[in-house]
């Protein structure tokens, strides 16, 4: 699988060194349950979490933009910057098995809104709760969770557009959401987990534009 081979070459070190990519630190994601959901939360509000349990705590998130297009090619969570990723696997949800895939196929998540999100399962529950609260409060005036919640994080007062943001459904809670543009927009995208030699997850990568390595 060339995707995993390229991911391994790009992300196994503690930094990304490729002239085709430019790296930005987004902020930190709070992982409370250890179950991470990667999805287009606007079309898949109940998307399944990965079956892998991840470390709990606050971890840095990076996006890596393709310089030529200025589009986000990869989004990355780093669980331990001091440990190299020794090997990589396709991230799976419950009831998914790589043996069921045909050559060239992947498990992943569909994007129709042009936006992807990283969040803990607890944050997903909080987001869905917020949507229900806003719907019941506004009734026929409810414009949808993007307009009511996400939109303001991507547009500043001057109208400039940000390609990524850190959001919180409730200010008094730790659970948060990392939202970002996905590559060139709509598509079906896979995620990959980098493991240490002793098989502990040290990185999670979602790929939107494949940057091929020599």
Descriptive report:
- The chain has 214 residues and is of the alpha+beta class.
- The chain has three helices and twelve strands; from the N terminus they run αβββββββααβββββ.
- It has helices at residues 2-11, 121-138, 145-154; strands at residues 21-31, 36-39, 57-66, 71-78, 87-90, 109-111, 115-120, 164-167, 177-181, 187-189, 191-195, 201-207.
- The strands form three sheets. It has a six-stranded antiparallel sheet, with helices on one face.
- The mean pLDDT is 91.
Defining key terms:
12 strands; six-stranded antiparallel β-sheet; single chain; alpha+beta; 214 residues; 18% helix; globular
Quick recap of the structure?
The chain has 3 helices and 12 strands; from the N terminus they run αβββββββααβββββ.
Q: How would the global form be characterised?
A: globular
The proportion of residues forming helix, as a percent range, comes to 10-25%
Q: Total number of β-strand segments?
A: 12
Measured by DSSP, the beta-strand proportion falls in 25-35%
How large is the count of helical segments?
3
Q: Biggest sheet, in brief?
A: 6 strands, antiparallel
Give me the Rg, rounded.
17 Å
Q: Taking strands numbered 1, 2, ... along the chain, how are they ordered across the largest sheet?
A: 1-3-4-12-11-5
* Termini gap: 15 Å
- Overall average residue pLDDT: 91
List segments where confidence is low: pLDDT < 50 over at least 5 consecutive residues. none
Main structural class: alpha+beta
| SSE string | HEEEEEEEHHEEEEE
